[in-house]
Amino acid sequence: MFEAVNNFLQHVDDLVWGVPLIVAILLTGIYLTIRLKGIQITKLPKALKYMFENEESGHGEVTSFGALCTALSATIGTGNIVGVATAIVAGGPGALFWMEIAALFGMATKYSEGLLAIKYRTTDKHGHILGGPFYYIENGMGKKWTWLANIFAFFGMGVGLFGIGTFTQVNGITSAVGNFFDPNAQNVIHLLGRDYTLAVVISGLILTVCVGLVVIGGLKRIAKVSEIIVPFMAVIYIAISLLLLILNANKIPAAIVEIVSSAFGMRAAAGGALGAIIVAMQKGIARGIFSNESGLGSAPIAAAAAQTKEPARQGLVSMTGTFIDTIVICTMTGLSIVLTGAWQVEGLEGVQVTTYAFQHGLPIPGQISAFVLMICLVFFAFTTILGWDYYSERCLEYLTNGHKKTILTYRWLYILAVFIGPYMTVSAVWTIADIFNGLMAIPNMIALFALSGVIVKETKAFFAAEKHKM
After folding, report:
1. 196 in helix, strand or coil?
2. Model confidence at 144, in pLDDT bands (50, 70, 90)?
3. Shortest CA distance to 295 belongs to which of 11, 33, 88?
């Protein structure tokens, strides 16, 4: 039964994440990069500066930094620790290269999403800020495109409930906790025809309660929790990863050669190079989008609530999310996995691969490095669950015109999905997430192409005004 379901899901995933979608996502980023004259490189220092400078006169529900942290809470999660490992094991070290390429061009995409989120946001009768792809599709492209906005909102709700928001994050948390506290599965409970460790069951219950306590409080509570947890855990994870890389600096050149050669199929057997490239691209780009969500259309939902009056300014702040998530954090994770050879160890999957890398790359007891990694994963994934509850609720609000009972029911369904998350199989979980990711990205990319002229015009006006101020 499980095998049949996995095979079916894999077939659907291969159709959704085929070459056409991979090319479309890359082309969107390349197209916007050209039209914006490489803004992700030329304006990165300014973007990093704006990240910490909140606009005092801006109109919105949370600070720009708070909006970024809400977006980062949804992006910095299992994708950075488990997703990178999954991509490298399935697609080889070359998957990391394509993840970086997708992220580089994805920064221009994320900038555009943040800009449009502010440009076309609206306020409801209760004074709440509403924004995101459904609003820039409807208000920017016109009412006749509302059907496309509805499609985006439907898949966005699905990504939250069945993909990035719940199953993958919960599964990553409980697997990490179970592997640390009971790696040999000595204390098990028989549920749903399978055995689960007591650590997995207990951690799943605790997580469900914690998520319930926060999501019932809405955006401001989610933003407040994210502003505390996200920067703190990101700094800890980056510091430990940096230490690992510094202590193994002599292995980094060989690891980079391995990554680049694998990306272009140079290590594949004769005749298999093209196939190796396609697999590396597919796994790398899919995991990269899962991790940083550029082009997915999720981050602009959070960006719309930022206290700002300048669309381009928020676009720059939004852009830093992809830089921090993939260019910094995913790169560190990927290099650690490649230089320690963790991706080649038989029988390891998901978080076990990254745990192996940390245990063999750091000169500290294996239990300590495994514990630190587990804590980072737990908090990263926890904040992602919170961020995606906010995203998916906003999608549902759009579909139902803010019907309160429906939204409240959805919150309880979301909490239920967190509750059953630990009992989903790892491969099925990631496959479902990939499918919804791909379907959600399509309407958003159509909107980005359609509104690219607006993006360029707003960008030119903003930097011209900035130059005039100087």
Report:
1. strand
2. very high
3. 33
Which of 382, 312, 324, 342 has its CA nearest to residue 118?
Answer: 312
Alpha-carbon gap, residue 92 to 96, rounded angstroms: 8
452 pLDDT exceeds 70? yes
Give the pLDDT of residue 269. 47
- Residue 123 belongs to what H/E stretch? strand 122-123
- Do residues 407 and 397 make contact, with C-beta atoms less than 8 angstroms apart? yes
CB of 40 closer than 8 Å to CB of 111: yes
Residue 192 has pLDDT above 70, yes or no: no
Determine if residue 38 is left, alpha or beta; phi over 0 gives left, psi from -120 to 50 gives alpha, anything else beta.
left
Q: By the 8 A CB rule, do 248 and 357 touch?
A: no
CA-wise closest residue to 342 among 462, 432, 255: 255
Q: pLDDT at position 72, please?
A: 72
User: Cα–chain-centroid distance for residue 287?
Assistant: 8
Could you give phi then psi for residue 394, rounded to 5 degrees?
A: -65, -35
Contact between 393 and 302 under an 8 Å Cβ cutoff? The reply is: no
Name the band, by pLDDT with cuts 50, 70 and 90, for residue 145.
very high
What pLDDT shows up at residue 271?
47
- Write down the residue that tokens 């914690």 correspond to: 210
Helix (H) or strand (E) holding 303: helix 299-303
**Contact call for residues 226 and 218 (beta carbons, < 8 A):** no
